[in-house]
Amino acid sequence: MVADHLRLHIAASAPTVAQLLAQDVALDLVILDLRLADGSSPKANVEELRAAGLETLVFTGAENPYLLRLAARAGVLGVVRKSEANDTVVAAILAAADGRQVVTTEWAAAIDGDPGLSEVGLSPRQRDVLALYASGEKATRVARLTGLTPHTVNDYLARIRAKYAEAGRPAATKTDLYKRAVEDGWLPVPEHPNR
After folding, report:
1. For range 94-117, the mean pLDDT
2. Distance in angstroms (rounded) separating the CA atoms of residues 1 and 120
């Protein structure tokens, strides 16, 4: 894909960020897939690369919005789909190599969440309660894990449900709350067991 572009040279590749950094090769930009061999978090990978002074462009199939959001929120220069035409991918790499943001629909959606979903405006504490409760914890356990009282957890859950209802995205059941948490990127998209 980059062979015909004189400005681009692939200096190194590796199945994990740790192995890439261990190669002691001068790099201008890292093109990162969201799923690496070690199962590492995209957020942790981007943060590790940034700590090493390297900027990142995500190159992905974009099949998992949760992973995209993790990487985007960690501060990547942009996101480009593997399904894009070669010229589009090369233009994105060139822009990122120059330190410019690569603004695409995928990147914007990863930062803002799905533009088709109305924002509910949960506070950080409400997001914590939602993530724990929607992932299967009971309200009493959520209270212990967050240092809140069970009454406060139940109050938060009622407020969370009200906010989703006001946004036109009702969440009357625990399953509904789980779906909303996944849609908004507070919980990972479940993986198929055969992957």
Report:
1. 70
2. 41
